[in-house]
Amino acid sequence: MLNHRLRALIRKEFIQIARDPRTLYIILAIPVIQIFLLGYTATTDVRNVPLAVLDRSRGPAARRLLDAYRAADYFSLAYDVDSEPELRTLIDNGRARAGLIIPPDFETLTQSGDTAEVAFILDGSDPNVASTSLAAATLIGQAFSTRLAIERLTPLGAASAGSSPVEVRARVWYNPDLESAFFMIPALIGMILQLLTSMLTATAIVRERERGTIEQLIVTPIRSGELVLAKVIPYTLIAFLNTLEILVIGTLWFGVPIRGGLGLLLLLSGLFLAGTLGVGLFVSTIAKTQQEAIMLVYFTMLPTIFLSGFFFPLAAMPPVLRAVSYAIPLRHYLIIIRSVLLKGVGASALTGEIVALAIFGAVMLGAAALRFRKRLD
Asked: What would the mean pLDDT of 314-323 be, rounded to a whole number?
């Protein structure tokens, strides 16, 4: 049996927990959110990979080949393009993860008994998706070729069965060797930046309140927006230093290429940091203690990790979670940094991501400035 002193202390701890309902809510809600997020997102299955199709044949055999890819669960025939530059643009900006090019003489070659070569282009910036897509595309092409070969047996005789009617030739862009470091290092840059900036700024105003220095700020003519900028600028400079540090290590040690403009990358990284710093400051205006601020940041990191495409492919997630992922700034930043580093694209190919980050940063910084009041709560 517990003695009365120990029972009294345990009762006191439960009373203190009950008096802090927000912390209790976070503690109870985090496991529930984790199980749902992990249950739906923690999968390495690759499905519904957006596929851009350049069909120069437009014949019945080409339509049958496309039906074979459409019937498989691996690909979604999302775009029908008219030229190779259009296909490249879709892959560069991440809207399509693969491309299928059917030659103009596809119908003639399949009917004459010759081998028709089909080009299959893969975005190698995500090796997990690319390797699975490569295997799936090859198997689908082989199965289709086998069906055509069987159909040839009757009208053309067994002699023609030895040649393969269709051959899928795969080419991997941006990361031909499917190096996993090319995928993970840029993602780690975004994750480290968000974690550091959110965590550091989340305790900024709370620390002032706990130390009692908030009273000194109250009696000064400082505006709320000026205080927010004063809190943001030092951490922004530190974050840029971290960005350069990680880029140097990733390039010199892990061999990650920098094919795009470094100035563009730093500029867009600053846009991303505006949002993450805004999240930290907004949390800082809500939390009462530094411990609560850190827990709130951890609470916001859960959907960021699982819904940004950091670990698991977005194409494998349910449509509802894919829609929610558009509100995650890290999703857009990962597209930006991988596109700039590995693909060498410019700002014109990243318009959607730039606009999304700008809106998120403006909303979060504005909300943090509005919540701060020059008075004690």
From this structure: 80
> In the structure encoding, which two tokens stand for residue 255, read together?
């061999």
| 173/91 Cα distance (integer angstroms) | 9
The pLDDT, as a whole number, for residue 2 is: 56
Task: Please say if the pLDDT value at position 268 is more than 50.
Answer: yes
Tokens of 153: 């047996």
Residues 162, 204 within the same domain: no
Half-sphere exposure of 105 (CA within 13 A, CB side): 7
Identify whether residues 330 and 299 lie together within a single domain.
yes
- Cα atoms found within 13 Å of the Cα of residue 318, Cβ hemisphere only: 8
* Residue 168 and residue 228 in one domain: no
Q: Could you report the per-residue pLDDT of 53-65, keeping only the tens digit for each?
A: 998 888 888 888 8
Helical residues (DSSP H) of the chain, grouped into ranges: 4-18, 21-41, 60-71, 84-92, 106-112, 127-156, 180-202, 204-211, 214-218, 224-252, 262-286, 290-307, 319-325, 329-338, 351-371
Please check whether residue 125 lies inside any domain of the structure: yes
Domain annotation covers residue 158: yes
pLDDT at 131 over 90: no
Asked if the model's pLDDT at residue 73 lies above 80, the reply is no
Residue 70 has pLDDT above 90, yes or no: no
Give the structural domain span for 367. 179-371
Tell me the mean pLDDT in the region 197-216. 77
Residue 189 lies in a domain: yes
CA distance 357 to 270: 10
Whether the CB-CB separation of 140 and 72 falls below 8 Å is answered with yes
Tokens 């951890």 -> residue:
298
pTM: 0.78
Answer whether 372's CB lies under 8 Å from 354's CB: no
